[in-house]
Write a structure and sequence with these properties.
The protein has 886 residues and is mainly beta. Helices cover 6% and strands 60% of the residues.
């Protein structure tokens, strides 16, 4: 009945059209759009349906407003899972061009015209045919099955590695994107190695990251993470985004630094692809990574697995002349250190394409690590009296370890609106980590003759920490008329953190370990931040701008587990504006100016007023009167393009911070240790002003040698005269990095990265030693030296290093690669500092993993196949194109 009714309607339409033609009513644009064609696209070799192929129909269309016509796209369709397509409302009197396109296939294009014989239909009607049969005949003339359309594989696109290459550097309105997949020197390494190659970023010996003399936030896939950079395999990273001056869309926290976003690999190509990597370093430690991606129908699944073993060897030496105490002492210390262990990283998930406009993505990651550190600390003390010197030596051997587990999960929903450039996303992210730590310390004391003058001291530490980080965010963006774009969003984040530690000392009388309550520290805190933002941008012919406003409110609460006293700090709603503007001087020249306001809130230990004796030589105490520091930041950038492979960018920046949170040292009598001790606490300095410039250049010489050069210089003035009279610290620093890649052949390349950091003043808020490889050493009952602290003046000596990597591609289509990497080839990466304060003068020297080599093998595989798992259709018609031949 339905088909009969449809035939009546179509027949009536064509009788009307015929009548209009006989009466002279036909005119330009009077063609009836009642044509209907359908069919199925199949793979010419397998006969399987081609999913997500695009079918477009072009033909003549008359514009009744402009009173003119021309060839244009009339309609289109996307094939279903079985390759079927359906196109309606097509003009029947004009020639049509039908084009079939699909990823990995050669384009097919055909001409078609509906063959409508109105006179024959009218004769059939007048000869007595019933209306149904007559109109069904007309309907059959406008309803055409094109059969099976064969599409052949495009051989140039069959293999996954034959794709358009991304540029090494991409400049966006509010960030720079560095695509590192072709970087040779990081193969088999971690994100720590990858960040060392990125302009503007410095990674020190301990893995601490700084950008323009401040510590940035580390994101993974656009969201905060509990993973550290040495727990992410470099081979799992697709690109690194440097957001030196984040807009209102991003978190306002971070103070003077910006955001570094590590984007992990994920592919959405139809078919399957992946790679496996395996390597070994000079110490016999292996690294193995693999990733796999498959897309079929509505599902795109991906997984990455990485195992990285590591043995790190380093050493530090420290000499100090104490200027307080009776008697005065000179101290010298050496500390060779070895760290041995592994970390395991697993990441996986899937995209579910609900339909063309809705996508659900679920992903997760697991991490596990185990590391053991061994130290052999030797400290010699010269006690100076008028007329004689008394020498003593302390030797401490310790073994400490840490087990680490992490879990992350993310759910993302994205909706595309019919209007181009308009979408809405909502996501929830959960990250947690936790772990146990331990340390065993054996300390012996010797006099000048080498005899033990007191019994061996045995100490033990145990610890546990855990954190949960939950973020929920929703974002909306839309493109309006006149090249206007708006964005808006809401975000909430909640972080819960717990740390428990205990310290013990061996009682020689009972041969048991007694707990030292005063040296243990057990605390927990909750940090909550709620935010809303909106941006408005517009693009003109040569000028584009974006203004934004972010509102944030936060609540910080915590305390010591074994105390009833709790601390809570609530910060009201604070506005954070941002302004970005870009002017296109020419097709090759752009100039950009931006401004943002940011905040750095005090952390738990900076606020809690209780004294922490967990390390008796680095005693800490918070200051509940601390205020957040606010930073106003401006950047002016100029970008010049000299073709596809050559660019140069200059950036000048200025940052002003008020109420800068800085370290400060106090000397007081300790009721616990019964002696004078240095207390490391915190104060708000009046202000900090930083000026700097950065030059980044990328250029190629005849496609044989590529260069990436980066130069940074900055000058900082910190006014802490409110903390101590006349305390104004001025600091100048510059560093340069050059990466060059020589392409000997298409298969053989050599990459070298060199960096030089000039002599510079020590920052006001850090010391000249300490850290994992330095003076503190981690003990609490003897040995080690405390950091010189905030009021120390001093400088660091120049340091430079050279890394290199050699890559050779082989097998068909260069599917396999062998890479040889060498780090610190000149054994020159030695960090040396000199510092002085009211309490002492100190020299330190540290190094780690000099002339370190590793070799890595990589194999890539993949195939574009739009229908991997579906059963073959044995009833396909291979003659479906016959009716389309002209």
């Amino acid at each position: 009945m339905k088909k009969y009714f449809l035939s009546l309607l179509i027949g009536f339409a064509f009788w009307s059209a015929a009548l209009a033609q006989y009466q002279g009513g036909g005119g330009r644009g009077a063609s009836q759009s009642v044509g209907h064609i359908y069919g199925k696209i199949i793979d010419s070799l397998t006969g399987k349906g081609v999913e997500y192929a695009v079918v477009t129909v072009s033909g003549y269309k008359y514009d009744t407003v402009k009173h003119s016509g021309g060839i244009t796209v009339l309609t289109g369709d996307l094939t279903k899972g079985n390759g079927e397509f359906n196109l309606e409302n097509l003009p029947i009197s004009n020639e049509l061009t039908i084009k079939f396109t699909a990823i990995g296939y050669k384009t097919v294009e055909r001409k078609y015209t509906f063959q409508i014989d109105f006179q024959k239909a009218m004769k059939q009607r007048s000869s007595g045919d019933n209306a149904g049969s007559g109109m069904s005949g007309i309907a059959s003339m406008t309803d055409k099955d094109l059969g099976n359309i064969k599409m052949s594989i495009n051989n140039q696109l069959k293999e996954v590695n034959i794709v358009a290459e991304k540029p090494d550097v991409e400049i966006k309105l509010d960030k720079k994107i560095y695509n590192i997949e072709k970087n040779i020197t990081i193969s088999g390494g971690t994100a720590e190695d990858a960040l060392k190659t990125i302009p503007s970023i410095i990674v020190d010996l301990d893995g601490n990251v700084s950008m323009r003399n401040a510590s940035p936030q580390i994101f993974v896939d656009g969201r905060p993470t509990t993973l550290t950079i040495d727990q992410i395999p470099a081979d799992a990273i697709e690109s690194i985004e440097v957001i030196s001056n984040p807009s209102a869309k991003y978190d306002a926290s971070g103070g003077m630094a910006g955001i570094i976003n590590i984007v992990l690999k994920k592919n959405k190509r139809t078919g399957y692809n992946g790679s496996i990597r395996a390597g070994v370093d000079m110490r016999g430690k292996i690294n193995a990574n693999g990733d796999f991606n498959v897309r079929e129908g509505k599902i795109n699944a991906f997984v990455t697995v990485g195992l990285h073993q590591r043995e790190s060897i380093g050493s530090s030496t420290t000499t100090r002349d104490n200027l307080i105490g009776s008697p005065l002492t000179n101290i010298s210390q050496t500390d060779p250190t070895t760290m041995n262990g592994y970390f395991l990283f697993v990441r996986g998930g899937f995209d579910y394409f609900i339909n063309n406009r809705n996508t659900l993505t679920i992903s997760g990651n697991l991490g596990k690590a185990h590391f053991v550190n061994t130290d052999a600390l030797t400290t010699g003390t010269d006690t100076i009296h008028p007329g004689y010197t008394n020498n003593s030596t302390m030797m401490r051997n310790d073994t400490s370890g840490r087990d680490f587990n992490s879990l992350g999960a993310s759910i993302l929903f994205k909706h595309l609106f019919p209007k181009e450039g308009t979408d809405w996303t909502a996501d929830v992210n959960y990250n947690s980590n936790g772990g146990n730590s331990y340390g065993n310390y054996y300390t012996n004391f010797y006099d000048v003759g080498g005899y033990m003058y007191r019994p061996e001291v045995q100490q033990r530490q145990t610890g546990y920490s855990s954190s949960q980080f939950i973020t929920a965010q929703t974002d909306f963006e839309s493109s309006l008329k006149n090249n206007i774009k708006i964005e808006a969003g809401l975000r909430s984040s909640i972080k819960n953190y717990t740390s428990l530690s205990s310290s013990f000392i061996l009682n020689p009388l009972t041969d048991t370990f007694d707990e030292l309550k005063v040296f243990g520290v057990n605390y927990q805190f909750t940090d909550q931040v709620y935010a809303a933002y909106g941006t408005f941008g517009q693009e003109f012919k040569k000028f584009s701008y974006q203004v934004g406003l972010r509102l944030e409110s936060s609540l910080y609460s915590g305390g010591f587990v074994d105390s009833t006293v709790k601390y809570q700090y609530q910060y009201p709603i604070v506005p954070f504006p941002s302004i970005f503007g870009t002017y296109h001087l020419t097709d090759k020249d752009d100039i950009q100016l931006n401004y943002t306001r940011r905040i750095n809130r005090p952390s738990f230990f900076q606020l809690i007023p209780a004294t922490d004796y967990s390390d008796s030589l680095n005693i800490k105490r918070g200051n509940p009167a601390l205020k957040p520091e606010f930073t106003n930041s401006m950047e002016l950038s100029y970008l010049r393009n000299f073709g596809h492979s050559n660019t140069i960018m200059f950036t000048g920046f200025y940052k002003n911070s008020t109420d800068l949170i800085t370290s400060y040292q106090l000397l007081e009598m300790s009721p616990v240790l019964h002696r004078n001790v240095i207390i490391n606490t915190y104060e708000n300095a009046l202000s900090s002003n930083s000026y700097g410039a950065e030059l980044t250049a990328k250029f190629s010489v005849k496609k044989v040698v590529d260069f990436m050069a980066n130069y940074n210089i900055y000058y900082t003035v910190i006014d802490a005269s409110n903390v101590a009279e006349g305390l104004i610290n001025k600091r100048t620093n510059w560093f340069a990095r050059l990466t060059s890649t020589i392409h000997f052949t298409k298969s053989l390349s050599l990459q070298m990265t060199g960096e030089y950091t000039a002599k510079s003043n020590l920052p006001l808020n850090s010391g000249g030693g300490g850290g994992r490889w330095g003076g503190i050493g981690g003990g609490f009952g003897g040995g080690g030296m405390s950091s010189p602290g905030a009021t120390a003046q001093g400088y660091s000596l120049p340091v430079y290093y050279l890394d290199a990597g050699l890559k050779f591609d082989f097998l068909k289509d260069r599917k396999a690669t062998i890479t040889l990497n060498g780090a610190d080839l000149l054994k020159s990466r030695i960090v040396q500092t000199y510092s002085e304060s009211t309490y002492f003068t100190q020299n330190t020297s540290r190094y780690k993993d000099q002339q370190f080599f590793r070799i890595t093998f990589t194999y890539r595989f993949g195939k574009f196949d739009v229908s991997l798992f579906k059963r073959k259709n044995t009833k396909v018609n291979t003659d479906g194109l016959n009716d389309m031949q002209q």
